[in-house]
Specification:
The protein is an alpha/beta fold. 26% of the residues lie in helices and 27% in strands. It folds into four domains: 273 residues, HUPs (Rossmann fold, 3-Layer(aba) Sandwich); 164 residues, 60s Ribosomal Protein L30, Chain: A; 98 residues, 2-Layer Sandwich (60s Ribosomal Protein L30, Chain: A), CATH 3.30.1330.40; 162 residues, 60s Ribosomal Protein L30, Chain: A, CATH 3.30.1330. Strand 4, helix 4 and strand 5 form a beta-alpha-beta unit.
C-alpha cells in the first residue's frame, strides 16, 4: 500500500508534523493540511481531541509547505467522553466538526487517506478512525504505540525544530517555554526517570510548535511572544507561550527545495536516508523477539516433534444436526456458543449446499441472528468467530457480507480455507452479561480494534478486532505476516512470516500489559507440512526466552490462508489474578491431576478400566492451563459480596489433547464421559470444544459426543485428516468451572 494522497491533520505540534514525515517515508504524498481552531479570541480550548495552544500560528503552515490549508472552528464540545464513539443525531460533539472539515477537504480535492499524530491515545485514534470510516478514507497513524524515547531522538536527529509552548507537569515550568526539544532532551529523559513523565508529552505534560522540518520549504520564525501563567502551582505550574507575531523565512537551500518532491526533501537528511534503508517494520530490525528467532529456518526436513499436534483439514460435513447449533450456560457468567452454521436439513441432499459465497453468508447470518434473537443475545455479545471458507479467492465477497453485521468493537476472527461443501461454515463464541447480575469483577468486555495503518501491527479495517477479553479470557484474532506499514506479506515464506506474525501477537498482548505467560493455547495454521518444524522451533524458543510456561501448540495444515499467507497464529489466553483463598488453589490442582496425572504419566482410568484401547495420551502430550478469577483488594462493595464470594471460587481451564489413531466415535464418547466424571468434583458452568477429526466419521462423532456430554457444552467439529500416524483426534477446549 503506497502512493496514497494524504490530508494531514495538523495541530502545529511535533507529533502531527513527524506523522507527515512518516507518511512520505512510507511512499505517500501530503496533498493538503487540515486544522480545527478554537473560536475567535479564545486562547486555549478545553478539548479532549484537539490542541488549541499555538493555533494562532497555523496559517503559516500553508506557506511553509506550499500546500492548501483547510481550517474550521471547533463548535462542538466533548460530549461522548467514554472510549468508544458513535455519532448521535442532535449531539454537538466536537468529533463532528472534524467530520465536516474532512468532508470539505474531500469535496475540494482527491484524497485517499488522513494522517494523525496519535501515539498512545485510544480516545483520539478511535475518533479519527470513526470519521475516516464514514468518509471511506484510510487512517494513517505511523506513530501509534512507538517507544517515546526512541521517537523523541528521531525527531531531533531528523532535524525537526520544535519549541515548547506549554508546560503542565512536575519538572517543567515557564523557564522551559520557547526552548527546543534538542535543548530539553536530556532534561526530559531525567524527568522521565525521576517523575515518570512521558518524554513525548503524551500525558499532557507539555505541548510544542514546529518551526521547521525537512518538509518545510520555508521556516517559521517567532518574532514576538508572551508568557501566560494559567496556574502558578508550586509543584506543577501551568503556563503557555502566546505567539503574538510570526513570519516565514527563506531556507538556505531554498533554490533546491522549491521544485523538489517531498521524498527528495526528506532524503537530504543523512539520518533519514539511513532510516529508509532499514525500515522499522522488517523483522530483522525488530527488537521484541529477535533473540528468540535465531537458527529457526534450517529445520524444514527435520522429524516432527512428538509434542506437536498436527492435522491437515479434510472435507467438511455440510449437514450437521441442528441440536448442535447452540450451547450456553444458564448460570451467572453468561458464556454461550453457536456452531456449525449453516444448519441444513439432512433431506436437502447435495442440492442444499450453498455454492455462492454471498448467498451462503446471508444464510449463515440469518440463522445466526435468529439464534441470537431467540435467546435475547445480540451480535455485540460475540467474542470470537471461526470462519471456514471453501475458496479463499472469495474472501473479499465474504468480508463485504460479514462486516455489515457488526458495529464498533466486533469479535475477533480466524478465517481459513478447507475442503467443504458449503461456501462458508461459521462457529461463534459469545458472552452475554445478564441484566439481573451485578459483577464487581472483570466481566467488562475489553476490545482493541485498531483500524489505522501504523508500524505497530496490522490494521483490522472493518470486520474484526485484534483482541477481545471478557471474564478474564483473552482471544486474539488470527495473525499473519503482514508488514504493518504497507499491509503487504513479508517475503521469504513461513520463517519470516511466522516471526513477524508472532511479533504482532506479542505487541497486542503488550498493549494490554500482558506477556507470553498469559498464553494458554496456540493454534497455528500452516499451508505446508514442511513448515511444522519451523513454527514449532519458533514457539519453543519464545517459551525458552520468555519463561512463558507450557502453553499448548497445535499445528493444523490447511489448503489456503488469507492473503496467501504461509502461517497464521490464533491465541487463547487467560489473565492471571491473585487468589485470596487457598481452597481454590487446591481445587484447581485437584482438577488437573484427577484428569491427567501429569507427573507420573498415568493414563486416564474409569472405574479401574484402563482406557488405552481408545485413548493414547502421555504426560508430555496433554497440558492444562488454568486461569483463575479472584477478588481484587479494592472490590469491597457490600451489594456485590455474594456474587464476589461465588466468583472467587470460579476458574477457567484450557485443555488440549491428542488421542490415539485407533480412536473411534463411540470410544471418543466414552473418553469424554470419563473426563466429565473427573471434572464432577467441581461444577462445570460452561464448556466449549473444538474437535479436529477425520471427515468420514465427523457427523457420527458429533452425534456420539452430543449423547455423552451434559448441557452447557458446545462442540464444533472440524473434519481433519491426520498427517501423523500416531494421532487420530485433536481437541481444544475452554471450560468455565466453579468450586462446589
Amino acid at each position: 500500500m503506497s502512493g496514497l494522497k494524504v490530508c494531514a491533520l495538523i495541530s502545529g505540534g511535533k507529533d502531527s508534523c513527524f506523522s507527515m514525515m512518516e507518511c512520505v517515508m512510507a511512499g505517500h504524498q501530503i496533498v493538503a493540511l487540515a486544522n480545527l481552531k478554537p473560536p475567535h479570541q479564545v486562547a486555549e480550548l478545553d478539548s479532549h481531541m484537539f490542541q488549541s495552544v499555538g493555533s494562532e500560528a497555523i496559517d503559516l503552515y500553508a506557506g511553509a509547505m506550499d500546500l492548501p490549508l483547510f481550517r474550521s472552528e471547533i463548535r462542538g464540545q466533548s460530549v461522548q467522553t467514554s472510549l468508544d464513539y458513535s455519532p448521535k443525531v442532535g449531539e454537538n460533539d466536537e468529533v463532528e466538526d472534524l467530520y465536516r472539515l474532512l468532508a470539505k477537504v474531500q469535496s475540494s480535492l482527491h484524497i485517499d487517506a488522513v494522517c494523525s499524530g496519535a501515539i498512545l491515545s485510544d480516545y483520539q485514534r478511535i475518533r479519527v478512525e470513526n470519521v475516516c470510516s464514514r468518509l471511506n478514507l484510510i487512517s494513517l497513524s505511523f506513530l501509534w504505540r512507538r517507544d517515546q524515547s526512541e521517537l523523541l531522538r528521531e525527531m531531533i536527529s531528523f532535524q525537526m525544530n520544535c519549541v515548547v509552548i506549554k508546560v503542565a507537569t512536575l519538572g517543567l515550568d515557564q523557564k522551559h517555554l520557547g526552548q527546543s526539544l534538542a535543548q530539553l532532551q536530556d532534561h526530559l529523559m531525567a524527568m522521565e526517570t525521576k517523575f515518570g513523565i512521558n518524554v513525548c508529552g503524551e500525558g499532557g505534560e507539555y505541548e510544542t510548535f514546529t518551526l521547521d522540518c525537512p518538509l518545510f520549504k520555508k521556516s517559521i520564525s517567532i518574532d514576538e511572544s508572551k508568557v501566560i501563567v494559567h496556574s502558578a502551582d508550586a509543584f506543577a505550574p501551568v503556563a503557555f507561550l502566546h505567539l503574538k507575531s510570526l513570519s516565514l523565512k527563506d531556507k538556505i537551500e531554498q533554490a533546491n527545495v522549491t521544485s523538489a518532491t517531498q521524498m527528495e526533501m526528506l532524503t537530504t537528511n543523512m539520518e533519514i536516508r539511513d532510516y529508509l534503508r532499514h525500515p522499522r517494520d522488517l523483522v530483522s530490525h525488530c527488537h521484541d523477539l529477535r533473540p528468540c528467532f535465531e537458527n529457526c529456518e534450517n529445520h524444514l526436513s527435520a522429524k516432527l516433534p512428538d509434542d506437536v499436534s498436527s492435522f491437515t483439514l479434510g472435507k467438511s460435513v455440510s449437514y450437521l444436526p441442528s441440536s448442535s447449533c447452540v450451547s450456553f450456560q444458564d448460570g451467572s457468567t453468561g458464556w454461550f456458543a453457536i456452531g456449525n452454521l449453516p444448519i441444513q436439513s439432512r433431506n436437502e441432499g447435495e442440492n442444499g449446499a450453498q455454492d455462492d459465497p454471498a448467498e451462503a453468508m446471508e444464510q449463515v447470518f440469518r440463522q445466526l441472528k435468529e439464534c441470537l434473537d431467540s435467546h435475547g443475545w445480540s451480535f455485540s455479545d460475540l467474542v470470537s468467530v471461526t470462519l471456514l471458507v471453501s475458496d479463499m479467492a472469495q474472501y473479499a465477497v465474504i468480508n463485504q457480507r460479514y462486516v455489515k453485521n457488526f458495529g464498533i468493537n466486533p469479535p475477533i476472527r480466524v478465517c481459513v480455507q478447507t475442503h467443504q461443501d458449503s461456501a462458508v461454515i461459521l462457529h461463534a463464541l459469545g458472552f452475554h452479561l445478564r441484566e439481573d447480575k451485578h459483577f464487581a469483577l472483570e466481566t467488562t468486555r475489553r476490545t482493541m480494534h485498531v483500524q489505522s495503518i501504523s508500524h505497530w501491527a496490522p490494521a483490522n479495517i472493518g470486520p474484526y478486532s485484534q483482541y477481545v477479553e471478557v471474564d478474564n479470557v483473552i482471544h486474539i484474532a488470527g495473525q499473519i505476516g503482514l508488514i504493518p506499514g504497507c499491509m503487504e506479506l513479508i517475503p521469504g515464506g513461513c520463517g519470516p512470516e511466522a516471526k513477524l506474525s508472532f511479533r504482532h501477537v506479542h505487541r497486542i498482548l503488550e498493549a494490554h500489559k500482558l506477556g507470553f505467560q498469559a498464553i494458554a493455547q496456540i493454534t497455528c495454521y500452516i499451508t505446508s507440512r514442511g513448515d511444522f518444524r519451523t513454527v514449532h522451533d519458533i514457539w519453543n524458543q519464545i517459551e525458552t526466552e520468555s519463561s512463558s510456561g507450557k502453553a499448548r501448540l497445535n499445528v493444523i495444515v490447511v489448503p489456503r490462508l488469507p492473503r496467501d499467507a504461509s502461517v497464521e497464529w490464533q491465541v487463547l489466553g487467560l489473565r492471571p489474578y491473585r487468589i485470596d483463598t487457598e481452597d481454590l488453589e487446591s481445587s484447581k490442582d485437584q482438577v488437573s491431576k484427577s484428569m491427567w496425572n501429569v507427573e507420573s504419566g498415568e493414563q486416564l482410568r474409569d472405574d479401574e478400566v484402563v482406557c488405552e484401547e481408545w485413548l493414547s495420551i502421555e504426560s508430555q502430550q496433554v497440558d492444562s492451563h488454568v486461569g483463575e478469577i479472584g477478588r481484587r483488594d479494592d472490590d469491597d462493595d457490600d451489594d456485590d459480596q455474594e456474587e464476589l464470594e461465588a466468583r472467587e471460587k470460579s476458574f477457567v481451564v484450557v485443555l488440549n489433547a491428542r488421542l490415539g489413531n485407533k480412536v473411534g466415535p463411540s470410544s471418543v464418547g466414552n473418553v469424554f464421559s470419563c473426563m466429565w466424571k473427573h471434572l464432577s468434583t467441581n461444577s462445570v458452568d460452561f464448556a466449549h470444544f473444538q474437535v479436529f477429526y477425520p471427515p468420514k466419521e465427523s457427523t457420527l462423532l458429533l452425534e456420539v459426543l452430543e449423547a455423552n456430554l451434559p448441557t452447557r457444552t458446545s462442540i464444533s467439529v472440524i473434519p481433519a485428516q491426520s498427517v501423523d500416524e500416531s494421532v487420530g483426534l485433536l481437541f481444544n477446549s475452554m471450560i468455565r468451572m466453579s468450586q462446589k
